[in-house]
Specification:
The protein has 279 residues and is of the alpha/beta class. The chain is built from nine helices and eleven strands.
């Protein structure tokens, strides 16, 4: 569906100030998107003509209609155990998660981190990433705002958990790595969330950010893809993820654009807190 839905008009790009251009409009969930029972369903997709960043505009209140219950119920529930087991059993060449952990280990080695390595995973979802990190010798803590999720993660992944809103939760300690695996596209204020990470890092610490690559997905496959599904406020570009990192007060160490085994278009960034000029 590419008709223009409603009269919404996108404001200037939050990252570069560029003008957004209409991409597609939807009056029903596209194929593959979870049906959360949103009615009436009306949203449109827009892309910045300058930096390539992509946003969803909604003809409904997303938080009120989605995040107050239906999303958690559809994502977690009792089937979480079966999904966790299925993903953990995937061979490395077919697993987004295993390849992500391999990338963490390579980064740690490149940085020369010796001794115990610690990680705080923000928005852990099913818990497959913390579980695989623990298997690879990391001391991992999973943070999620949903108590149902953290209870399941503790049981399934065997890691420490913290239940709460990352923006207000007390700092549980300092970590070598704070990871946001496909998390920041779900929040209204990604810059503020990323900026708060500095309070959680050890002196040698770094942040890992993984986000949907909307720029590549649009160019290769079009708009009816999971990178742009209803629960994503944003999908990023190589330029906008760099602007996000800078706006949050970090320096980019590396940027990768990958097509994951699952077929997802993904941007991966490692970054460290920026050093003030003259220091």
């Amino acid at each position: 569906m590419t008709q223009k839905i409603g009269s919404e008009q996108a404001e200037a790009c939050r990252f570069c100030g560029g003008e957004h251009h209409f991409v597609a409009g939807y009056d029903a969930p596209p194929k593959g998107e979870t049906n959360f029972g949103i009615s009436p369903y009306r949203r449109s997709l827009w892309q910045c003509g300058r930096c390539g960043h992509v946003i969803n505009l909604y003809g409904f209140d997303l938080e009120a209609t989605l995040y107050q219950g239906p999303y958690a119920e559809a994502t977690y529930g009792e089937r979480m155990r079966a999904t966790f087991a299925k993903i953990m059993a995937l061979p490395p060449e077919r697993s987004d998660n295993r390849q992500r952990v391999t990338r963490m280990n390579l980064f740690s080695d490149t940085m020369g981190w010796s001794g115990a390595r610690s990680c705080l995973d923000v928005g852990s979802g099913l818990g497959v990433f913390p579980a695989a990190m623990r298997e690879n010798g990391w001391i991992c803590t999973a943070l999620d705002p949903d108590p149902m999720a953290t209870a399941m993660i503790k049981s399934l992944a065997g890691v420490e958990v913290l239940t709460g809103d990352f923006m207000i939760v007390d700092t549980p300690g300092r970590f070598d790595l704070v990871s946001f695996n496909k998390v920041l596209e779900h929040v209204r204020e990604p810059v503020a969330m990323l900026a708060r990470t500095k309070a959680f890092l050890t002196p040698r610490g770094a942040v890992y950010v993984e986000l949907p690559d909307g720029e590549a997905a649009l160019a290769d496959a079009g708009p009816d893809r999971e990178e742009f599904f209803v629960e994503h406020f944003d999908a990023y570009s190589a330029a906008s993820i760099a602007l996000l990192i800078r706006a949050a007060g970090f320096d980019t160490l590396s940027v990768e654009r990958v097509r994951e085994p699952s077929g997802k278009y993904t941007l991966r960034v490692f970054a460290r807190p920026a050093v003030a000029e003259g220091i």
